[in-house]
């Protein structure tokens, strides 16, 4: 039984969003080399031409090379997979609130364009992430955003708001020219039997090291 999620927007592009059960590159594309980065909550994107020995610091990867499986890990942040099936260009991005607000998704789309993608043809999928009902933030967090972002916050208890990270990520994709976007709509926080959640683990005083792996690849 397959224990990972897929998105209809990506069609037959090999891809998957893992649960806490894990995921291997061979499950997505047999024989593919898994390419990852050292994630630092940045807006930096790197282009993979081959599997590297020492992963660079970045939060998104793009490629047009077959048999490479691009992967990022998350545990509440939004994993975003992107593909232009006609140009055969793919990308993956780690979109926490810092990276998303700094432009990691727009930068990923731009990097895909340099490989021949057409941003109007790019499809995107947002994987399991913390949902608005589970994401309480304070005034200091709210101050990182502009008045135009007010629609992504709903009032909560005094001095707090609920932040809609997947909707914010989708808006940043639309601003970059991506119009076909799927959201698998799975809340990492409320499903301890299925997903790791950094925030839930912190609230419970548990180990916070668990992560989901999201992968996209180009077939040969």
From TrEMBL:
One of its GO terms (molecular function) is S-methyl-5-thioadenosine phosphorylase activity. The keyword Membrane does not apply. The keyword Hydrolase applies. InterPro entries: Cu_polyphenol_OxRdtase, Cu_polyphenol_OxRdtase_sf, Cytotoxic_necrot_fac-like_cat. It catalyses: adenosine + phosphate = alpha-D-ribose 1-phosphate + adenine; S-methyl-5'-thioadenosine + phosphate = 5-(methylsulfanyl)-alpha-D-ribose 1-phosphate + adenine; adenosine + H2O + H(+) = inosine + NH4(+); inosine + phosphate = alpha-D-ribose 1-phosphate + hypoxanthine. It holds the Pfam family Cu-oxidase_4. CDD domains: YfiH. Keywords: Hydrolase, Metal-binding, Transferase, Zinc. Belongs to the purine nucleoside phosphorylase YfiH/LACC1 family. This is Purine nucleoside phosphorylase. It comes from Qipengyuania citrea.
């Amino acid at each position: 039984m397959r224990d990972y999620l897929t998105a209809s927007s990506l069609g037959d592009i090999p891809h998957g969003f893992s649960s806490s059960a894990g995921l291997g590159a061979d499950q997505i594309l047999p024989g593919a080399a898994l390419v990852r980065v050292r994630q630092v909550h940045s807006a930096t994107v790197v282009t993979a031409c081959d599997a590297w020995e020492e992963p660079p610091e970045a939060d998104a990867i793009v490629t047009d090379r077959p048999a490479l499986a691009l992967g990022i890990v998350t545990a509440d942040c939004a994993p975003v997979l992107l593909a232009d099936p006609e140009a055969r260009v793919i990308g993956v991005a780690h979109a926490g609130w810092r990276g998303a607000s700094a432009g990691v998704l727009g930068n990923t789309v731009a990097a895909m364009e340099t490989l021949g993608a057409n941003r109007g043809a790019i499809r995107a999928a947002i994987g399991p992430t913390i949902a608005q009902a589970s994401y309480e933030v304070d005034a200091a967090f709210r101050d990182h955003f502009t008045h135009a972002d007010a629609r992504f916050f709903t009032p909560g208890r005094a001095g707090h708001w609920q932040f809609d990270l997947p909707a914010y990520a989708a808006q940043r994709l639309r601003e970059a020219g991506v119009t076909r976007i799927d959201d698998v709509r799975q809340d990492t926080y409320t499903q301890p039997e299925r997903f790791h959640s950094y925030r839930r683990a912190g609230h419970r005083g548990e180990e916070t090291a668990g992560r989901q792996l999201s992968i996209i690849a180009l077939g040969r």
